[in-house]
Records
---
Amino acid sequence: MNILPHNISTTNDLLTSRGGLLAIATLMKKLNLSNLIDKHFIQPKSNRGFRPSVFLNSLILMQHEGGIRLDDLKYLKKDTALKKLLGMECIPQPDSVGDWLRRMGISGVKAVSSINKELCHIGLKDIKEVTLDIDASEIRSNKKEAKKTYKYNHGYMPMIGHIAEINHVIETDFRAGNTAPKAKNLEFIKKCENNLPNDVKLKKIRIDCAGYQKSIIQYCDENQIHFAIRAIMSQTLKNYINSLD
């Protein structure tokens, strides 16, 4: 066996296995996200409290790493090299983050909506007409209050609205798992539309069969919105399609 011409030695340099988070952190800095967060969220009453951006920046990085619970923050907290690289002086304890999220409540939801609208405006740039995709997305959960979804799993079934041109989530509606995917879809579409920048028009909508509703089709017709909705096939509809040939 030939000996490879490499020498192995020890080092005291800080190392991290989370180098991929650099791209996310760079984007967050480019978007000036910390200032946006601190602008819209309620500030701490004490000068010893963390700024809102400290909490949310930690959560964003944790989720991009694949974390699914607050306790996963401890892995970032222990990564000295990553914190030094990103210039993060502190990552809050999971319990502190949970307490902060509960304190924010509805005001936090409104703050996220305001931030999201500004980010959408940045992403759209010169785009003035957009396509909206809406769909329910199952989140499995072992929580006691989680209800059974139509897929027979316990969890939640939030409705999510995407702007197709920039792959941006414009609105979400957190729903119980047993909520029908077709519930209040027109109201959700209007919320998505209201979240768009003032100079941007909703031009197209795409929905699965949960959106096959008279009220949605009428709304699209009245507002000159093109739509693609998967219909629930029936003999009556099939006969009508055949009559168009």
Note: The chain has two domains: 18-124, 126-245.
---
Amino acid sequence: MRKGVKNESSVIFIKGKFLIFIFMKEYKKTNLSIKRWAEEDRPREKLILKGKAVLSEAELIAILIGSGNMEMSAVELSRMLLKEVNNDLSELAKLSVQELKKFKGIGEAKAVSIISALELGKRRRMLDLPKKEMIASSKDIYDMMKPFLLDLMHEEFWVILLNRANGVIKKSSISIGGVSGTIADPKLVFKAALENLASAVILVHNHPSGNTNPSEADVKLTKKMVEAGKLLDIAVLDHLIFTDSSYFSFADEGRLV
């Protein structure tokens, strides 16, 4: 009796394996690679036949990476990647090569392709901005500094040097810091101003956190810079706190003292 049960179990087990094997074969048939999709559904062919505008962001990324992994196609992998950043391309642009490589199916080459494409898109966007030789508002400052501060994950402090007509002489990086702060030395700011015969300066630094509110250190530094500028007859016209989506202007808020 026991032998029969054992043999029966063995047969059932073998059948179970056979059924699972059949199921996996059927699953693989339904989870087709992009090359086996209908031509009009493949991202590359779809772009050629219907134009780039009809492609989703996931399909565009799929063209960049070329292939997925054993479990999902390039399009499915791209959708998962976008889902992890809440479908926000700006957040995707902030990921490093090592962070992208954490996704199964994304190696170094694919990660570099994604980062390069997003950087090209950012630069193209910057070229579409009107070129401004003069600064007339805080928005002009913000737009001017986007190519230098957008998508950064660390703080940087910059100074814009101006002539008497508020024309831009030069934009100069003063310091590069970490995630939570950077040190700005007034001596370096005004050294740059004096060397370039600037009549005024505008201070700019970014907050990677996205918080536009000035810290106590930002307020103290602004006051210190304004006082130093008065001694040298070089006006501090504004101090702008830059984030990827907005900004804070000390001048607009009447906080230049």
Note: The chain has two domains: 31-126, 138-249.
---
Amino acid sequence: MDFLNKGSETNKTELAYWAQKYAKQNGADNTSIVISKNRSINVDYRDDKIDQLKESTQNSLWIEIYAGGRYSSHSTNDLRKESLEKFITNAIAMTKFLGEDPFQSLPDPALYQGRPTADLQLYDANYSKMTAEERVSRAKELHDLIKGRDPRLISITSGFSDSHYENTHLKSNGFEGNYENSSFSWGASVSLRGEDDKKPEGWKYYGARHLADLPPSKQIADEAFQRGLDSMGQKKIKSGKMPMLLENTAVGGLFWRVLHPFSAAAIQQKQSFLEGKQGQRIGSENLTLIDDPTIIRGMGSRYYDGDGISAKKLVIVENGILKNYYVDVYYGRKLGMNPTTGGSSNITFKTGTRSGAEMEADLDRGILVTSFIGGNANSTTGDYSLGISGWLIENGKRVQPVNEMNISGNFIELFENLSETGNDPYTYSSLRAPTLLFDGISFAGA
């Protein structure tokens, strides 16, 4: 019998308790079980017709086995009881062949306490009212708002997607959690006929937990088309050192590359340039990073993490001083560190007083970076070399679109050169970053 076909949270919890009991009866000392159901729908509209319409629904059970000082993890999509009996029995049998790991055991139940009681509004109650016609209509609407704007347009692709996720998490030492969330994405991309057979492109996509929080279609269409126009005539300019104004939507292209070194896993594996720097300065006073899982409707909001640790605000960097790492239970034990949380949720920045547009207007000469194009970053040394595109700014004006230029250096030095943060955090991502201004960045170009 497939319990999830009944579509009830009670049935997922019932199945998790059954699996926990069955595993203990067959040799497991403890278990951690996650049962989830994920439904996603994606519509792409390209050049006057539906290009792709895809829907998928996946049920899964993930079980962690603790037996005789040994640990293993296993997953399956077959949730029929007769199949799960064989699956769990085999999982326990395989676990016994592994070596003992003294650091692998369930978390201290005290870490489960203090879970947020406020409604984080992770699920849009109107999600179930969405129809196939509305999804297609939204994708087509963006396409038609761009169509015919410019004879140089070659292709337009617009899309609308949404997902619904349900999760039940059960640990055999007292943890039980249930939640569901929704997400929506809406956007478009364009390609145009440029000079010398070039095909410059531009795109803009937005994501939100609730459908009503997405921007209006005209705004998205205008921004996607304008970004295509902005890429016309891009070229390298002469190499040099100058300020870098980093657009709020582009901050993720930089900061997601540097997130892993903040983790206990990276530190224990000697893959972090931040090892041993807790309590030390790693950036300017303008750098403050706070991990906040309690933001209402936040894209990274949650009630607890994968270890079951209750969600709380965590200061990562304060006025340039490294305050905390992301410490999960397992690597925390290996390092002798108290657990904080195993991974990021919503990352917020200390904001300034000016908008990105005001900061740009006050720039004598520098480069506005609107996107990153490839490159690499070394989490062990902190060295980076990244491709960028954007605009050359002179006397507060955009004078030349630039592309295929590189910035290079070390992240510590980059953080130290953060001279200003904007007042415009980007709220359509779990990285809620404002526009950032860095001084003295080395740009390699022509």
Note: The longest helix spans residues 9-25.
---
Amino acid sequence: MSLDIALILNNWDYNSNEVTVRKITGIDGRPKIQMRLDLGILQMELEGRPDGTRPHGRESLLEYHNERLRRYSERHGGNEGFEISPDECNDVRQEAMQFYHRYLSLFHLGDYLDVLRDTEHNLQLFDMVREFAVEKNDRMSLEQFRPYVLMMNTRARACLSLEERDFDRALSQISDGVERIEDFLREVDREDMIDTCREIAFLQEWSERIRTNRPLSTEEKLRRELRQAVESENYERAAQLRDQLRELAM
């Protein structure tokens, strides 16, 4: 059997202008995600670590280090002195990159709940490295990616709300996401970046598009009709609309 993947690549075009992903069923019968790249394909598991491994017998390095931290805290009465070595930080960064590829793929497949799972995983990894890495450079090495992960987490939450046509909740979630990114930038003394942050700009523009294009609620429709009735001096119709609005408020 040939190991050449040219046949697969020739039947699946790569487009540099978009994320090209698909779900397949593996030879083990389990669903997997494939992401088309310029030089080949990434294949990822849907559950656990994207590469399918179990580091130290755990589902992920996050789970492993959380378990280490729990045992350390029990022995020492707290977290002070717990450390993640430079080599361990390097392994954590590799895991975070795997989860990045998967949540990006999942977002384009519309699997927003799994995007939440994977972005929360990476945010917890970032927190752990920032707090417990031995080297200062390691502690800050993942923070540059936090605004993007927060943005993707926010997009997934809001998309779930939009699927339920709950526009108000989606707008509130986007506002919360913007605030989380702004708070982070202030925390790392980069408040000067708030006005130029691409992630904040994207969320704000998306929020405006939702406000502009969302369907009007029953109350909004009645208020618009009422305004038009008053402007056209159709006071009988205006009175009827006021009565309908009062009934809605009861």
Note: Residues 219-249 form one domain.
